[in-house]
Amino acid sequence: MKEGQEKIYYITADSYAAAKSSPHLELLRKKGIEVLLLSDRIDEWMMNYLTEFDGKPFQSVSKVDESLEKLADEVDESAKEAEKALTPFIDRVKALLGERVKDVRLTHRLTDTPAIVSTDADEMSTQMAKLFAAAGQKVPEVKYIFELNPDHVLVKRAADRLKMKRSSASG
């Protein structure tokens, strides 16, 4: 475990390959932080009861958590200005997705991927929902969080297209 690391990170997936290639791991991979890759069906259920080890809490990387955002490099002022410019785009995505998502926001935990879908810390994970469905249980509705990478070219181009479309419509 890396010195100063406050949590033990893990990810659950249908297979080892899916866990290993998850975009949720991009920042952690970049920072050299080890992550437990769990691929057995029971692992998600087990992690709900196994909350810590050796005084360190477990944290799913597929759930939104401040400690993951803190791992991202400090955002400089020019990046903050660029993020402010993305506000109309985020508002548009929120309007398009409507009630299907809990929130649309920017994240700095992505390096190569334009966007990810995460769950809130208190929501049922996608893996747990799959476990419930496989067991024939009723799966409660979960509202996901759509996180966008403000540094990805796809997000920037989509925001620019929206800006051009709005300026041509008003002008």
TrEMBL record:
Keywords in alphabetical order: Chaperone
GO terms, molecular function: ATP binding; ATP hydrolysis activity; ATP-dependent protein folding chaperone; unfolded protein binding
SUPFAM superfamilies (alphabetical): HSP90 C-terminal domain, Ribosomal protein S5 domain 2-like
InterPro entries: HSP90_C, Hsp90_fam, Ribosomal_Su5_D2-typ_SF
Superkingdom to which the source organism belongs: Bacteria
Similarity comment text for this entry: Belongs to the heat shock protein 90 family.
Annotated protein name in UniProt: Chaperone (Heat shock protein)
